[in-house]
Automatic annotation (TrEMBL):
Family: Belongs to the inositol phosphokinase (IPK) family.
Lineage of source species: Eukaryota, Metazoa, Ecdysozoa, Arthropoda, Crustacea
The species this protein was found in: Amphibalanus amphitrite (Striped barnacle)
Its EC number(s): 2.7.-.-
Gene this chain is encoded by: IPK2a
Name of the protein in question: Kinase
Pfam families per UniProt: IPK (PF03770)
Amino acid sequence: MFNAKKGMVGIMMHNDGSLLKPVCPDATEPLEDDEIRFYEKISNAEDPIDKELATLTPKYFGTQKVKVADRDVLCMKMENFTYGFRHACVLDLKMGRVTSIPTAPEEKRKHEASKYLGTRATVGFSVPGMAVYDVTNASAIQHGKPFGKALDGKSVLDAFRTFLNAPCGSGVRPICDSLLAQLGRIDSWFSRQRRYKFFASSILLTYDAAALLAGAGRSEEQVLAAARPIARMIDFAHAWPADGEPDANYQEGLRNVIRLVTEVRDALPTA
Ligand SMILES: Nc1ncnc2c1ncn2[C@@H]1O[C@H](COP(=O)(O)OP(=O)(O)OP(=O)(O)O)[C@@H](O)[C@H]1O
Ligand SMILES: O=P(O)(O)O[C@@H]1[C@@H](O)[C@H](OP(=O)(O)O)[C@@H](OP(=O)(O)O)[C@@H](O)[C@H]1OP(=O)(O)O
């Protein structure tokens, strides 16, 4: 259960269905962890840009200490987008060509710059994880980092097709449309904000593929109500002050994510 590398546990689920994300292993109080400070700031914000940002992330429910094998682990409690899903599909997109903060030690910068070159250099993001329920073959697939490291600017489109269950045809269209509308809100926020540059931060895409099992004859509203598609920003351990500049590193990847989902949608057959 402990992650030997980071010396801590992975994400856990609370009895009420929310997520418990362990924070920096050395932090025993919330003020010692950057990501907690970030969520506290935006969830109590008066500033309109910060307030809007809070609507583009999971809802934050504060912190909680959790006993794991006799250790007190400090966790953030947050909204779980896949709670209650029967066939959860989850795509984690780590945004930006550059994923280390400007003051990171050279060794860390070099290590980060050496990974996921096939997608970072072409589409400006990487795919550290993807879980899909493949409706056509009735099988659940879980891909880790090696899958994302093997992708390039062309094959990443196939990964999006697989993730979106494109072979299911026109039933997938409302899911794509909903994801695109939500990604558009994130893009709009980035076009106006000049407060942050995010490093190694992700966009999470989720939906329940059980919505596609019922077959033809369902209205778009019925598919959407069952699929509950979500596109949100997650993972803010490395938020950096932007000093009045746009976050071009994140925006490049985001525009390509929007392009790829649009390409999958536009190639679907009409109903
Ligand atoms: N709000 C959420 N709802 C549903 N699933 C989530 C949510 N947040 C995170 N996850 C799942 O947990 C995974 C890890 O999340 P996150 O990147 O925030 O944690 P992490 O500890 O920084 O992970 P890593 O170090 O592997 O990047 C995501 O890829 C996703 O599968
Ligand atoms: O070893 P990897 O696969 O490159 O994964 C890294 C790694 O977990 C790294 O942690 P650390 O070893 O620097 O503590 C993560 O860095 P941050 O915690 O600073 O974000 C990286 O994000 C991981 O990279 P990735 O998930 O992109 O493969």
